[in-house]
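Table S2 (text version). Query chain:
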Amino acid sequence: MPERHHPWLWCLVLLLLALAGCSLTTTYRYADRIILWQLDHYFDLNSNQRHDLAQRLTPLLTRHRHEALPQYETFLREIGQRIEQGLTGPDVDWAYATYDRLRADLFERVVAESGVFLASVDARQVRTFESVLQKDNAKTERLVQNPPSERLSKRAEATLDWLKDWLGPLTKEQQERIREWSLGLPDVQEVLVAYQQQRQQELLTLLHQPRTPERIARELHTMFVSPDKTAPQSYHNAVRQMREAAKTMVLSIDQHVTPEQRHHAVTKLQRLIDAGSALPWSHSLASRPPDRRGDFHALKRYSRRPWPLPKTKRASISTRHWSRRAGKSKTTRAPIFMLDEEWPSETSPS
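Corresponding structure-token output:
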């Protein structure tokens, strides 16, 4: 399902990536920087906006750490218990419903702050936002235009990679079965892309009109907290078909895993829970030490595409250190998931 809707909301979805097995520690350590990078990429922030966002992110992320993260840990712990016992149809239904609830809770937490930020966006920044979306959509449309067999094959390979990470080594028979099941999942990408673009147009329409933080918050609530009320029927049908097919696939996989693979998955979940429990209870950009190569290397888990690097001449304090280390003097983009051997010298350019 497409994840890019509104940059602020999209970035905060990183906080839910724990549910998919990403690094909780790295997510929370750099959530504010990731959000600022994305917003700067889409809106070309001015200094006042960067400062205001940095100030607002600290309490927002701290509250999330106190109130929402324990819910994620409970969810993961119960998933582990159900995996140990062997999954059933009601288990998968419960996982879908819980994910939907946690996602709605996450968006509910940020719509007010998003309204404040979007009310500060001027006409030039709206044009910048629209231009970046057009470029993103052009790339997405090129991917959608690939032959269905090619798209489905790539999806099957990604599924296999993900399962190898969670279950450990797979037998040849398991890989063949999983690939076959994955290829049988419905191809709903075109419908989901169309839905994403519909929401983008709704947001752009809102930004081209006179607006207040309160009005924007109400509209964002409709788009992202209660999307079922306004989403087209084609989208509802696509999500239902995919979830039903994925449920069948999950239950089939569960019936063919070995005790060792089941233990591997439960152990990985427990490590994720332990990492969440070890996180600090406050979040402050200013209090964190300088960035380290390994932390940014870990961020490659979050995206297959390069993250935008803010222009050096207007880079905020949260990104200037990395900008200098990356040695990017003539470009504004750099991959954040560089391999260790590709990372520039630790000596900052003069």
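Notes on Table S2: DSSP finds 14 helices and no strands in the chain. The chain has one domain: 7-288.
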